[in-house]
Amino acid sequence: MGGRNAQVVDVRAGEGAAVADGPLPGTVFRRRLRPATVARELWASRELVRALAERDLRARYKQAVLGFAWAVLTPLALCAIFTLVFHRAVRIDTGTAPYALFAYVGLIVWQFFSNTMNQGALSLANNLSLLNKVYCPREVFPLATMLVAAVDMLIGVGVLGVMFLAFWTAPAATAAWVLPLLAVQFAFTYGVALVLSVAVVYLRDVRHLLPIITQMGVFATPVAYPLAKIPHRLQELYVALNPLGAVIEGYRRALLYGDAPDARLTLVAAASSVVFLVGGYLIFKKLETGIADVA
Amino acid sequence: MSRELPDGTIRTEHVWKRFRADQQRMLLRDRVEAAGRRLRGRRGEDWRWALRDVNLHIGPGESVGLIGSNGSGKSTLLKMLTRVMYPYAGGIDVRGRIGALIEIRAGIHPDLTGRENIYLFGALLGLRRREVAGRFDDIVEFARLGGAIDRQVKFYSSGMQMRLGFAVAAYLEPHVLLVDEVLAVGDAVFQQRCLDRMREVLDQGTTLVFVSHDLPAVESVCTRGVWLEQGTVRVDAGIREAMAGYRDSIEAQSEAGARAGEPLQLLKYEIRGADRENLLTDEPMTVDLHLGGDYRGDATLHLGVSEGTASPVFQISHEVRLTGEDRTVTCTIPRLPLPRGRYTLWTGVYGIGRTDGGTLMSWHSAGQFDVFGPVLDTPPRAVVLAAPVFVPHHWED
Predict the structure, then answer these.
(1) Is A162 helix (H, G, I), strand (E, B) or coil?
(2) Domains in chain B: how many in total?
(3) CA distance linking residue A205 with residue A182, whole number of Å
(4) Which residues of chain B neighbour A292 with C-beta distances below 8 Å?
(5) Do B20 and B46 form a contact (C-beta atoms < 8 A)?
(6) A19 in a structural domain
(7) Predicted pLDDT of residue A14
(8) Chain B residue numbers touching A11 (CB-CB < 8 A)
(9) Of B61, B96, B64, B81, nearest to B207 (Cα)?
(10) Min CA distance, A165 vs chain B (Å)?
């Protein structure tokens, strides 16, 4: 009677037996993204972006004794070094503007870019365990790091105001040109951060490239010297590859020299940064679907 | 896929998912090497199917338990429903707000206070700040954090950290609630709270998909069971049917490892009803155990009945004096308290007064038997299996 278990419970078994070796051709999953849906989702995530940025800011400054002073000290220290090296030793000519102001304008932009790039590149990799469990538009993570960098930049702008006072000059009347340039700066920076953030998820050793890019970038970008140092016929190509060149140059003209930014260079830079942003976003969205598979 | 499905509907159509089977490091260096190999036309990629042709249609308000052994694809499926992961082929459609009851300790920032973390989680899970604020007290109460709420999370015990992440997720009000293995974490009280919360949410008409290895827990909240085996749906039926199939398969696997070399062996056993073959609820049941082996001395014979693999419904024991010859021991239960269903008989024999632990025949499942009789009365909504015992009773009113 031990064989009672021959009695089989009626289960709908055997359904699995008919499974094919692979999916039917033509059923391969493709995520369709409509721009309207993406935009709506991103807008709905605005509180998340803020919360993530707030998390980073709070966490950063809860530990550090000097708190927000770090956001001021880093560019100031660099500014002091640049003044010593480039102004005193190399004798870069900055015309009517004091060198310290000249360099500091460039440093604010560079600092913003390098912070966003370095933190943004790791923003997905550092949150992988979260990405594995919670759904949200992934682009909010690099976006939040850019927001943090923007807060730092705002502090830097405050210091810039103090420096204007110290040198007893005022921003030129053309300062309103800053706004469109700001858009170019944000678009380019976000585009780079987007690509790097997914790249680091798929290729962990890309993060070792970051210090190199940072080190070289600060000299490859006209932070310590004017854009004019680059041969005239190469300038358009240069700002197409590095829109920050035109942005920094534009800020200086608008704030320090009372000129409008160079129209041609600014347009090239703007077009290029749109390409960086859109291209970066598409790459990001394409690779995003596999993040949970490799994490 | 049809357009006008109500919120709370889940549909998967011919879903396939594959993962890399070859060991692969995420380094640029390796990619360059692999690209080089591919150029020279050697060695393609190696893939393994994690899910094969999964079709599930779940309606609003259904409660579905996903069961299956490790690696059967339960979590992968759940991740795809959460939209964290995407299928290789096929379509997935989940309507309405999706809430995942998951442990998100990973997102807890140790330097922030509990309060700050609650708002952060809320934002991550798609809650507005106002919504979190409205449920704040409930969340704190659920997580049993009390006065610790304004302390930095790094000073929390690991239990508190876990409960914090969990509580926020528990207070989402989704159309579809996905629960993955939550009961593995937390103490008994907290597990009970989680189950209660799931029942509450079910009562409000939410669709539930519950993944757990805690089978009684699944059975107690789900009405439908989906048994996944090696990435395919083996059974999709009522929870009891699916469970029975799954348990049978586990037993078939565990019985394979037989116990040889023990002093006593169960030669044969027989289970009888009163005078017929069939066992009936609330009627007598008789078990004959035929023991073989040359052990002499006093021993305790244990007998048990379980519904699942390891959770006994009842257990009884009896002292016997073994004489070194084959023995038959008979046990009679005058009124069998088991409702209709399939059960497992367990037995084991342990020596008395021996210093070496005294295992003569280790505790093992001898086999299965069926009981005929009334089904358990229909339980209240969202409680499928409250208790596995039939109690004789009568009503008056």
Answers:
(1) helix
(2) 2
(3) 31
(4) 79, 84-85
(5) yes
(6) no
(7) 40
(8) 235, 237, 241-242, 244-245
(9) B61
(10) 37
Whether the Cβ atoms of residue B393 and residue B337 lie closer than 8 Å to each other: no
Question: Would the CB atoms of A201 and B26 count as touching at under 8 Å?
Answer: yes
* Maximum CA extent, chain B: 86
State whether B55 and B195 are in the same domain: yes
Domain finish residue from B227, B251, B275:
B251
Q: Best interface-test mutation with B: which of A7, A10, A12 has the largest number of B CBs within 10 A?
A: A12
Domain with B124, as residue range(s), is 10-21+48-251
pLDDT in the model for residue A271: 97
Query: Are B301 and B362 within 8 A, CB to CB?
Result: no
- Tens-digit pLDDT profile for residues B99-108: 887 666 666 6
CB contact under 8 A, B89 and A24: yes
Q: Report the residue of B49, B84, B94, B121 to disrupt the A interface, i.e. the one with the largest count of A CBs within 10 Å.
A: B84
Question: For chain A, which ranges sit under pLDDT 70?
Answer: 1-19, 63-67, 295
Residues of chain B contacting A63 with CB distance shorter than 8 Å: 111
Residues of the domain holding A265:
45-294
User: Nearest C-alpha of chain B: how many angstroms from A268?
Assistant: 32
Cβ of B26 within 8 Å of Cβ of A127? The answer is: no
The minimal CB distance from A59 to the residues B112, B122, B272 is found for B112
Tell me if A29 is assigned to some domain: no
Cβ atoms of B306 and B283 within 8 Å: the answer is no
Which amino acid is located at B20 in the chain?
Answer: R
Query: Model-level pTM?
Result: 0.76
| Number of folded domains that form chain A | 1
Smallest CA–CA separation between B366 and chain A, in Å?
8
Check A136 against B366: CB less than 8 A apart.
no
CATH number of the domain residue B186 falls in: 3.40.50.300
The DSSP 8-state label assigned to residue B275 in this structure reads: S
Residues B199 and B113 in one domain: yes
Output B349 or A185, whichever has higher pLDDT. Answer: A185
pLDDT, tens only, B287-318: 888 888 878 888 889 898 887 656 778 889 88
Query: Are A135 and B84 in contact (CB < 8 Å)?
Result: yes
* Token couple for A67: 């708190």
- pLDDT for B97 beyond 50: yes
Single out the residue of B280, B253, B269, B278 nearest to residue B304, CA to CA: B269
Q: How many CB atoms lie within 10 A of CB B378?
A: 8
Task: Give how far B68 is from chain A: nearest CA, Å.
Answer: 14
Tokens read off for B110: 């140790």
**In 3-state terms, what secondary structure has residue A12?**
coil
